[in-house]
Write a structure and sequence with these properties.
CATH superfamily of the largest domain: MetI-like
Radius of gyration: 31 Å
Number of helices: 18
Shape: flat
Order of helices and strands: HHHHHHHHHHHHHHHHHH
Number of domains: 2
Structural class: mainly alpha
Length: about 425
């Protein structure tokens, strides 16, 4: 018992432990270490932080858990946003408090080792060398938190509430419903059918449209790169022209061209073969039109990308292949394609991710229509355009947020695993 008592007393008497215990009240540990200016500064910062933010954080955390208790007097959305901001402010406060503990303990350890405390000038010099970069990025970090992180947190939170057109504040208060919105997407009839239909088309649209634009861009780049082709600069300029025209202008023009009544495709071209295709009223043909339009809009970028990469393929590799009797197909398969994919794989993956969320072409072409019986999404809606309709047309904010989370997870997982499989990712940092 005496041994335990003595060891406990020794632990408490150590300067590092005394300083840590005193730092429960910010600044006292620094006073113990004779760092009076730092102690006063931390004490003033702590008191100022508590005075200015205590009421805001108190109401914010309360509102985050309850989302209000009195309809019309309490606004659930305002309380939710205040609660999320309170979490960030509280995080800054906790960071300052932890710094106070760590700083006091570090100075006490130096005191145990009989190292003198740095002077004010030395402390300022150390701050400039070690902390100045963090101090300079602080404004950007704050902007990032309140412009990017808070909206993302708000969207995530909405996915677990019952916020829709029939239950909207301030007339009604919101409630936390857990995973009910995700369960409805998997089980409830209209949500389940619509989600499966839209998700399937989104995957098909992403894979087919992106693959077509990549294949077409690669094919044209290989043709233009052929030594027998003349006027290469002129041909490249012409093929890149669709990229120079703003995409929304091209989409609106194509929407008029594919109009089944007065569009030039039906009236001037297909009418010669006594054929009229319902491009805008039939979901299948509308999807075909969208894939063709995206192929047209997307291939110039891929063409320009591949054209530049093909210029860097070492010619001696082709000469060696000719000596070995390699065919054109073998040279393409074993030299050209690996070289091109190694250099462009990350950008090609971004093409797939971009088309997965390509809202512009879907909405500008025919607003995701035509309507489909038994679904609350159009026949050509992809997930992002469906989310737009749920948000701005039917006010199903909770379901829109739930679908957005699913979209984010899908894209993140796809991009992560695809990047890890690319040769350029594996080679990064090796040299």
């Amino acid at each position: 018992m005496a041994t335990n008592h003595n060891s406990g007393s020794a632990w408490i008497k150590k300067p590092r432990n005394i300083a840590t215990i005193l730092s429960i009240i910010p600044g006292l540990g620094q006073f113990y270490n004779r760092r009076f200016l730092k102690g006063i500064s931390l004490l003033i910062v702590t008191v100022s932080f508590l005075i200015t933010t205590w009421n805001y954080i108190d109401i914010g955390i309360w509102g985050l858990f309850t989302l209000g208790t009195i309809p019309r007097d309490h606004h659930s959305i305002q309380l939710l946003i205040q609660g999320l901001i309170s979490l960030i402010i509280l995080g800054f406060g906790i960071a300052i408090y932890l710094y106070n503990l760590k700083d006091a303990r570090s100075d006490a350890i130096a005191r145990e080792n009989h190292r003198s405390n740095p002077t004010l000038i030395q402390g300022m010099a150390a701050f400039y060398n070690n902390g100045f970069p963090y101090f300079m990025i602080l404004p950007g970090l704050l902007m990032l938190l309140f412009i990017v992180v808070v909206p993302l947190m708000f969207m995530l939170a909405l996915a677990f509430t019952d916020y829709n057109q029939y239950n909207a504040p301030p007339r009604h208060l919101l409630s936390w419903v857990g995973l009910n919105n995700f369960v409805d997407l998997a089980n409830v009839g209209i949500w389940k059918d619509t989600f499966l239909s839209v998700f399937t088309w989104t995957v098909v649209w992403t894979v087919v449209a992106t693959s077509f634009q990549i294949i077409l861009g690669l094919f044209l780049a290989l043709l233009v790169n052929d030594k027998r082709i003349k006027f290469k600069r002129t041909i490249r300029t012409i093929l890149i022209l669709p990229w120079a025209v703003p995409a929304f202008v091209s989409i609106l023009i194509f929407s008029a061209l594919f109009n089944p009544t007065f569009g030039a495709i039906n009236r001037d071209i297909l009418s010669q073969f006594e054929t009229m295709i319902p491009w805008l009223s039939d979901p299948f043909w509308a999807k075909v039109a969208l894939i063709m339009i995206q192929t047209w809009l997307g291939f110039p970028f891929v063409f320009a990308l591949f054209t530049g990469v093909l210029q860097s393929v070492p010619q001696d590799m082709y000469e060696a292949a000719d000596v070995d009797g390699g065919s054109r197909l073998q040279k393409f398969r074993h030299i050209t394609l690996p070289h091109v994919l190694f250099a462009t794989a990350p950008l090609l993956i971004m093409q797939y991710a971009g088309n997965f969320n390509n809202f512009n072409i879907i909405y500008l072409f025919n607003e995701g229509n035509p309507a489909v019986r038994g679904q609350n999404a159009g026949g050509t809606d992809i997930l992002i355009s469906w989310v737009y309709k749920l948000t701005f047309e039917t006010n199903n904010y909770n379901m829109a947020a739930a679908i957005t989370i699913i979209m984010g997870i899908i894209i993140s997982v796809f991009a992560f695993f695809q990047f890890r499989k690319t040769a350029s990712f594996k080679e990064e940092g090796r040299y």
